[in-house]
Amino acid sequence: MNRIHKYWPLLIVLVLGTLLRFYHNLDISFWHDEAFSALLIKYPFGEMMRKIGLDVHPPMYYLFLKAWHSIFGDSALSLRGFSVLFSVAAIWAVWIFVKEAFKDERLALWAAILAAINPFQMQYVTEARMYTMGAFFALLAAYFLVKALNRQKEFYEEQSLGMPNLPAAIRLRKLMLWNYLGFTVATIIIIYTHYYLFFTAAALGFYGLLFLYFHNPHPGLPLEGGGKGGWNFKKYFPLLLSFIVIVLSFLPWLKTFLFQYKQVGASYWIPPMNIWSIPSTFWDMLLGFARDTAKTSTEFWLLAVTLFSIYLFYRFLKKTQSFHRWLIFFAATAPFLGSLLFLALARLKGSNTSLYLDRYFLFAGIFYSIIVAVWMKEIKFKWLSASLFIVYVLVNLLAFSNYWTNLNVKAKPGMSGAAKYLNANVEPQHKIYVGSSFVYFNFKYYNRTSVEPLLYSGGITEVGQMPHYAGTALLNDADLLPNFNRDVKNSDTVWLIWTNGFAGRKPEVPKNWTELYEQSYAEVRPPYSNSSVFVTEYKVN
Fold first, then answer.
1. Cα dihedral across residues 289, 292, 297, 303: positive or negative
2. Is 1's pLDDT higher than 60?
3. What does the pLDDT read at residue 266?
4. Which of 94, 388, 457, 473 could form a disulfide with 480 if both were Cys (CB 3.0 to 4.6 A apart)?
5. Distance from CA of residue 56 to its chain's centroid?
6. What is the pLDDT of residue 230?
7. How far apart are CA 425 and CA 384, in angstroms?
8. Tens of pLDDT, residues 36-58
9. Which residues on neighbouring strands pair with residue 534, listed in sequence order?
10. Percent helix / strand / coil, the chain, rounded to 5
11. What is the DSSP letter of 411?
């Protein structure tokens, strides 16, 4: 009973985080990427793995989602609930990580609260994609690493007493090894979840080496002044063994990774980085309010938030006592350095392409929130510390409310609304053509008619001629409609689905098609203003 009483604040935070994450969650229509996930996991295991290799992401998320799908099905509640599950689990992971790293339960609770109400973290629970899963396992890897390093330090302190077989030493050694195993497994999971998590994994590995250099003398030697351990190589063995296992685990996927990397370079869609890319991400991680970088006033606030973030990192490193602050700092900043590395490599090749999207920084954002919590908690004046924390919580909740108000999801049924109309009106002898690959898969997900849709390809007859970001991994040549005159005859009814999102426009249809009806369904995603799905009914004359 006392144990439950001790943890009830955390339970309240977890319940609050869950409720916030389910708010309007199912009111947003599935978009291209989510529908890709939902359709991919329906294939038999071997075929699914082959198709994953043809895409641009590693397989771990899909493997987890397929297992989840086998139990809970492929409804929107199930697939997005999977994202909610990991996002809520990340709140708990923040709590156990901070408690282990700083030995401060109050700070751990503060950090968990900020993770629970952070709008940036909550934004991606409305997508059936790998981001929240990656954030959870990144935290878990950090937790296991910190715990392994702490136990290793304690173990060597016991060893320095000259009595190596003490029960305490034996217990610490077992705990150390088990936690290194946990770190190894969690790191393998993250590098197989999203390639941006390579930077997080590298940050954790570098930190482990750094910690061991400054701590843990060789067994049997007394602690040196300041706790420095230097290059006593035996102490690095457990961590290096973890590195070896992690690297070996990725070798079977290396060939596929190189193919995917080449494929991304061959056909590109992500907008290039600009001077406001990183400031905008800092803004999202700290505040989560809508922003428009075309406005001078917004640029001023983005600059202010960037300067504050730099100050925040500086104060965090300078004033925080725990050596584990360096792990959090590396994990929060490594993905940004990685994005700049990608940009530099592209510039060397004479290109301005980049691999920068805000959602790739969800993994860094969770560590950024921990830094904010630590900074607030360590303000000297406790009344100011508590007041600032309360104000920041209220600002986050306001940003969350503002986010949903601006989305106005009730007025944006998107593809789910379009498919609902089509499911009620399409007859078996009708034809359904889709004018863009970016709405083809989400219609297939919602399609309950007996008519298989075809994707208008504008003269392309083979999937291999299309860019990978069109979802070619799930397409067959038989899915393509090179021209609208194929397979239609007089008096046919044709339904055309198209979008103005992703810079799309209405396809030009044959002149003997008479338009009978057209309706638009505003979309929340893609995240561009005024994007809609359109349904147009034609009669062929």
1. positive
2. no
3. 64
4. 457
5. 14
6. 62
7. 62
8. 999 999 999 999 999 999 999 99
9. 498, 520
10. 65, 5, 30
11. G
Go through 380-418 and write b for each residue having 16 or more CB atoms within 10 A of its CB, e for each that does not. eeeeebeebbeebbebbeebbeebeeebebeebbbbbbb
Summarize pLDDT for 113-146 with one digit per residue, the tens.
999 999 999 999 999 999 999 999 999 999 999 9
| Residue 300 φ/ψ region, left for φ over 0, alpha for ψ in the -120 to 50 degree band, beta for the rest | alpha
- pLDDT tens across 259-274, in order? 998 887 766 677 888 8
DSSP H or E segment with residue 423: helix 414-425
Distance, C-alpha 269 to centroid of its chain? 18
Share above pLDDT 70 across residues of the chain, in percent, rounded to a whole number = 94
Cα–Cα dist 469/92, whole Å = 35
Contact in structure between 415 and 443 (CB atoms under 8 Å): yes
Asked if residue 18 lies in contact with residue 84, where contact means CB atoms within 8 angstroms, the answer is yes
Please give the Cα distance from 193 to 58 (Å, whole number).
6
Residue 85's H or E segment, with its range, is helix 76-102
Q: Please, what is the Cα angle at 63 between 189 and 80, to 5 degrees? A: 100
pTM of the model: 0.94
The residue ranges of DSSP E strands in 283-334, in sequence order, are none
Spatial CB neighbours of 521, under 8 Å, sequence gap ≥ 6: 412, 413, 414, 415, 417, 418, 532, 533, 534, 535
What is the dihedral angle through the alpha carbons of 493, 496, 497, 500, rounded to the nearest 10 degrees? -150
Per-residue H/E/C for 181-233: HHHHHHHHHHHCCCCCHHHHHHHHHHHHHHHHHHCCCCCCCCCCHHHCCCCCH
Q: Judge whether 422 and 490 are in contact, CB under 8 Å.
A: no
